[in-house]
Design goal:
Blueprint: H1 8-28, H2 35-43, H3 50-63, H4 71-88, E1 97-98, E2 105-109, E3 119-124, H5 139-147, H6 149-162, E4 172-175, E5 183-188, H7 198-217, E6 222-225, H8 237-254, E7 261-266, H9 269-278
Parallel strand pairs: 2-7, 3-5, 3-6, 6-7
Antiparallel strand pairs: 1-2, 4-5
């Protein structure tokens, strides 16, 4: 996949087409528009700033059901998303920092949607079809946004076949679509609400093991973990980091014949400060 940056004119052309398509699609199905998309309609697509068109497109994609999309739409969406990822800058394993005490483990602070590894881990909810809140700040929203509408469709198909919500501490593998990562491994972490129990701690450790099992079964050799359950699910960050590193090291020690490089991806300075001593950095 070739990631090439877009000129401003081309970016705006794609955004205008995509926003217009999704607005017309929503109106055709009698669905209310997210506020920012409604503003674009009121003010006119041709006069809207590119940033406003991006927010309209993203919010509409966030709430779009897993309907089939025409090839023209997918081509425009893919060109836009790959261009935005290229503009943000793609990171590789060479950009991550190896642990001096365990070279199998690495740390990287940045946007996981720009990381080119075999798989990134998505902290999903039990519905498994992404975050449906327009423009929400969670990692589930970000991954689905930059992977494209194909990811929700794939997840919806898997969930329809399963026939029930996803249990906590399992793992499902999908393609990465427009992401630099080849695969996305989705796992539902425990909802601790700031007061983790022993069951929550066990479930969080099982999330890491299930994702590693899934990666190994898929023949992958590198995986990047987000900080599972530490967002809206409320698992305290410090304890979650300790469980994450201990669980991963235990799995690696139990599977010495499976080559696996594990990146702990953090986004905030706080999380970075928690992982650095755990990794001997």
């Amino acid at each position: 996949m070739q990631y090439e940056t877009l000129g401003e004119a081309r970016k705006r052309e794609l955004l205008q087409y995509l926003a217009e398509y999704l607005i017309e699609e929503s109106e055709l199905h009698g669905r209310a528009l997210p506020p920012v998309a409604a503003e674009v309609v009121r003010d006119g697509l041709t006069s809207a700033a590119a940033e406003k068109l991006w927010l309209a497109f993203r919010s509409l994609a966030n709430v779009r059901p897993s309907w089939p999309a025409p090839a023209e739409f997918l081509a425009a969406q893919d060109e836009l998303l790959q261009g935005l990822i290229a503009e943000a800058g793609i990171a590789t394993l060479a950009d991550t920092t190896a642990s001096p005490v365990d070279p199998r483990l690495r740390l990287w602070r940045g946007d996981i949607t720009t990381l080119a590894v075999d798989a990134i881990v998505n902290a999903a909810n039990s519905g498994m079809t992404g975050c449906w809140a327009p423009l929400h700040y969670c990692i589930d929203n970000a991954i689905h946004t930059f992977a494209g509408v194909q990811l929700r469709a794939a997840c919806a198909k898997a969930m329809a076949a399963q026939g029930h919500p996803e249990p906590t501490a399992q793992a499902k593998v999908t393609d990465g679509y427009n992401l630099p990562a080849r695969r996305v491994i989705h796992t539902v972490g425990p909802i601790a609400d700031g007061r983790p129990t022993d069951t929550h701690r066990r479930q969080l450790a099982e999330c890491y093991r299930a994702c590693l099992d899934a990666a190994a079964a898929a023949g992958l050799s590198s995986i990047a973990f987000c900080c599972i359950s530490t967002g809206v699910f409320g698992f305290p960050q410090k304890e979650a980091a300790s469980i994450a590193v201990a669980s991963v090291r235990r799995w690696l020690n139990e599977h010495p014949d499976i080559p696996m490089t594990v990146v702990f991806n953090v986004f905030s300075e706080t999380d970075e400060s928690l992982y650095r001593p755990l990794l001997g950095l």
